[in-house]
Amino acid sequence: METSCDDTCAAVLEDDRIRANVISSQTNLHAKWGGVVPDIAKRAHAERIEGVIAEALKRARVTMEQIEVIAVTQGPGLAIALGVGIDKAKELAARYQKKMVAVNHVEGHIWSNLLKNGKGLPERQIIFPALALTVSGGHTKLVKIEAFGKYQILGETLDDAAGEALDKAAKMMGLGYPGGPIIERLAQKGDKHFLELPRPMMQGKSLDFSFSGLKTSFYYQIREWPKEKVGGHLADLAASFQEAVLETLVKKLVRAVEKTEPKTLMVSGGVAANLALRKKLRVVAENYGLPLYLPFKKELNTDNAAMIGLVGFFKAKRGEYVENAVSLDRAARLELVTGLSD
Ligand code: KG4
Ligand code: ZN
Question: Which domains does the chain have, with CATH numbers?
Answer without folding.
Answer: 7-117+299-327 (3.30.420.40), 130-295 (3.30.420.40)
